[in-house]
Amino acid sequence: MIQIGEQNYSFDDPIVIVVLVAGAMVLLILALLVMAIRAAGKSARMAAPLGQHMQVLGSHVQQLGAGQEQLRGGLQTVSDTQANAQAQLVQSMEARLAAVQQNMQDRLADNAARSARSLAEMQERMNATLHGSSKQTTTSLTQLQERLAAIDKAQDNITKLSGDVLSLQDILSNKQRRGMFGEIQLNDIVSKALPPNSFEFQHTLSNGKRADCLVHLPNPPGPIVIDAKFPFEAFEALASAEGKEDQQRALRAFGAAVRVHIKAISEKYIIEGETADGALMFLPSEAVYAELHARLPDVVRAGFDARVWIVSPTTCMATLNTMRAILKDARMREQAGAIRKELGMLHDDVERLVTRVGNLDRHFGQARKDVDEIMISSEKAAKRAGRLHNFDFEELTEDKSPTAVVPLTKPLD
User: What is the per-residue burial (b if ≥16 Cβ within 10 Å, else e) of 186-209?
Assistant: First the structure.
């Protein structure tokens, strides 16, 4: 091995062989030179040719030195090239190693991310399953609680209804309380159907009798009385009767009780000159009203003859709505003068409005005329400006005659 600089060369390398051959030739030439110098002392005649030969040999030696220098430069170039190739090979290997390492890291990261996603999805599915099961359980428990609450509420309502039925039985069993029940129901219906100032409860008439409700209607027909009656005992006896004879007996008793109420209302609440020529008997039960009209029409006709009209909660509401229309019509008639006065004032306002609209129309007409004149003037001005803009001043500058352009003179003071 031969080391030149930082490079090592083997003996079987062609470059090393060439260098060695060149060195051997140089040594051979040097040996021949030494031998020629020694032979110079033996023969003088051979000095000149030997000198010439030495010069030739020296030139060859110089050429050989130059070749050696070139060979050294080639060896240095080869060494640099090999060093660069080796450095590039090392860099390429390092880059490939880094790429392989990065690829392995990416794959490991990708596998880790996939594992994490799979684990998260599995955990999410498990959470969803658990949440769904918990939600279903909660929903079932909530529905069960709601049903139990509904059952409890229904039980409370049944208990309350039972208490209300007992209270209603207590109310209906007492005559005074039945009267209060009918009056309360009548008050509620009248308050909802009529204006507040059109009726009066517990009004005392001139004969000292107190009516449950007095509706102030205009004449005719005048104020009309509504009295609440509830023949509960007779109706209950009719409903509980089983045999045909018992039913007939109870039906006659029921009709007699209603006739008594009709007579009492006719005598107490129909006063000539003070009330209307009739009155209303309010039955607070639709069942009683239906039974009366279905099975006792003669009693209803007896009420018509006595000018007492029997009404139920439903028919009473319809009658009161009719009274409401009558009251509205009466108030319209009362306010007819004020309405005519307001209509006259409205007519005057409309006439003034027509006059002012006419004045405004004239102003608008004058404004439209002024705008039209302004538009005409602007169009004329635009045409003149267009003609001035299109005027060719170059023709004036090219014409040098004194008559082509009118000279401008300084104005006299």
Answer: bbebbeebbeeebbeeebebeeeb
Encoded tokens for 126: 């498990």
Question: Do both 181 and 330 map to the same domain?
Answer: yes
Domain carrying residue 324: 175-334
For the chain, which ranges sit under pLDDT 50?
A: 165-166, 168-174, 176, 178-179, 393-406, 408, 413
309, 334, 359 — which closes off a domain? Answer: 334
Per-residue model confidence as pLDDT tens digits over 4-62: 666 666 666 676 677 777 777 778 887 777 777 776 666 655 556 656 776 777 777 77
State whether 303 and 213 are in the same domain. Answer: yes
385 within a domain of the structure (yes/no): no
The structure's pTM equals 0.40
| Single residue among 130, 146, 161 that ends a domain in this structure | 130
CB 279 within 8 A of CB 269: yes
75 and 203 share one domain = no
Instruction: Please tell me whether the peptide bond between 195 and the residue prior to it is cis, using omega within 30 degrees of 0.
Output: no
Our count of domains for the chain comes to 2
Residue 299: name the closest of 268, 265, 266, 262 by CA.
Answer: 262
**What is the distance, to the nearest Å, from the Cα of residue 265 to the centroid of all Cα atoms in its chain?**
65
- Biggest CA–CA distance in the chain, Å, is 198
